[in-house]
Design a protein that fits this description.
The chain is an alpha/beta fold. The chain is built from seven helices and five strands. 46% of the residues lie in helices and 12% in strands.
Length: 185
């Protein structure tokens, strides 16, 4: 089970979270877990919360207004359906907010994506793909890495690993041919 709010694996002292990962419902956790995992893999402390723009608006407002004062640097907010959480949080803080549209049963997350994308001028929300938790975590890390050379190096190493994996797959594909490669996938 991943560490809970404001904890990093094997940390001797509790670290102040730099990134908050918010969800309107705990059913959104599966979409946001890749963000949490990649950030923790980079040793970035994460605070994870369930705060609904509709069911717990006062708690959401309090959290968003205090986020910067509590040491947070970036907020990732996932939401489905009407998907108001990212935009409402962004309206209450000057911190960067990354919206993650959660795939819904009714419209497959397209409704959520449009809701998050269509923010009014002056209140931006960076938006990743539907169910794009991993990219939200990577984007949050890149924002933090602007002022953190160690984190920047970790991101560079992560991307080099992705590069090397694709080069290896390409080499294997050329060696085996498409049919044999496909059958071994």
């Amino acid at each position: 089970m991943p560490p809970t709010s404001r904890q990093v694996p094997s940390a001797k002292a509790e670290l102040t979270a730099q990134v908050a990962v918010l969800m309107g419902s705990d059913s959104d956790l599966s979409t946001l877990l890749p963000a949490i995992e990649v950030l923790e893999g980079f040793q970035v402390a994460v605070e994870v919360r369930v705060l609904s723009a509709h069911r717990t608006p006062l708690e959401m407002v309090s959290f968003a207004r205090q986020a910067k004062f509590n040491g947070l640097k970036v907020i990732i907010a996932g939401a489905g359906g009407a998907a108001h959480l990212p935009g409402m949080v962004a309206s209450l803080t000057s911190l960067p907010v990354i919206g993650v549209p959660v795939k819904s049963k009714a419209l497959s997350g397209v409704d959520s994506m449009h809701s998050i994308l269509q923010m009014p001028n002056g209140i931006p929300v960076a938006t990743v793909a539907i169910a794009g938790g991993l990219n939200a975590g990577l984007l949050a890390a890149q924002i933090l890495a602007i002022a953190d050379p160690t984190l920047s190096e970790k991101i560079t190493n992560y991307r080099q690993k992705l590069h090397d994996e694709v080069v290896e797959k390409d080499s294997r594909l050329m060696k085996l041919g498409a049919n044999l490669y496909f059958n071994q996938m």
